[in-house]
Amino acid sequence: MSRHRIAALFCFISIQLVLAVASRAQQFTPQEGDFVLRDFGFKSGEKLPDLRLHYMTFGTLARDAQGRATNAVIILHGTGGSGRQFLAPQFANALFGSGQLLDTNRYYVILPDGIGHGRSSKPSDGLHARFPQYDYDDMVTAQYRLVTEGLKVDHLRLVMGTSMGCMQSWMLGEVYPDFMDALMPLACLPVEIAGRNRMWRKMLIDAIRNDPEWKGGEYTAQPRAALRTAQDLLVIAGSAPLQGQKNYPTREAADKYVEDAGARSTSLDANDLLYQVNASRTYDPSAGLDRIKAPVMYVNSADDFINPPELGIAEREIKKVKNGRFVLLPISDLTRGHGTHTSAAAWQQYLDELLRGSAR
Fold this sequence. Notes:
- The chain is α/β, with parallel strands linked by helices.
- It folds into two domains: 27-191 and 284-357, Rossmann fold (3-Layer(aba) Sandwich); 196-276, Rna Polymerase Sigma Factor, Chain: A (Orthogonal Bundle).
- 37% of the residues lie in helices and 15% in strands.
- The chain has an eight-stranded mixed beta sheet with strand order 1-2-4-3-5-6-7-8, sandwiched between helices.
- The longest helix is centred in the first third of the chain and has 25 residues, at 3-27.
- It is globular.
């Protein structure tokens, strides 16, 4: 082959690669919007004249001959996160592509930002500590109204949730048992937050409230000491011992990781974080698990600091669910502690099983 033909061939291949990457990027570019709930009443008795819920969607909503939605999927994020976290490669690239389990050419995927998170209404918008004291009940109510009133979706093919979203998926299944075909909670326990899980949350909350620089929530500069402590607690709660040892095998490497993590605390807002963590205070779906009608595929990982398997709670509580299965992922190179919930390679086979088993 001549030199010019070789150059032309490489040029052609390069163009095709660029087009393929562009096509893939386009596939994972969501539609974004805001739904405003007027005069939203919180369980505490407080009200907001305008509660904004930000959301992203992929794909096109499909309906059957009776006009009922058939392909809508909602994925609920964790504490301090947002729907945007599911655009991470380890999640989106494993699930949303052509022919994959949540192929956005087949499914209408909804990624909301919960109250107090992402681009939804939150204390740092201006109300600070005067923002209503929301909890998970308020968040679930608002998410349901976003889906039904804002997006006009009357039925969900799947509810999936990670961490806080895992907990809220239990609640959705109990409060709206006919609203979904399947549930997949990832990385939580369906009981009151107590024991060590509550302890580290209380430590984080107290670190903020007891910092003189917090000033009752009316600070003009972030209370840095409190946020550094909060960040340290979040690092421990989200850590995975096996991966931590492999990735930071020396004292110097471990210390550097802690220093870098501490630097990330500058991106936090104290009121937002305080509210986010404290929203779990009333959570306890254990008494209503028998009300869930949809098939449930419930997955935790054995290296999860927040939901340690030795408690035996997951195995006990899943027995209350009429059509539920619990899977405990063993520690492996695929697990990432609590963060395993966003590493789809570790659990996608169980999502496949759930979708097949709940197909209509």
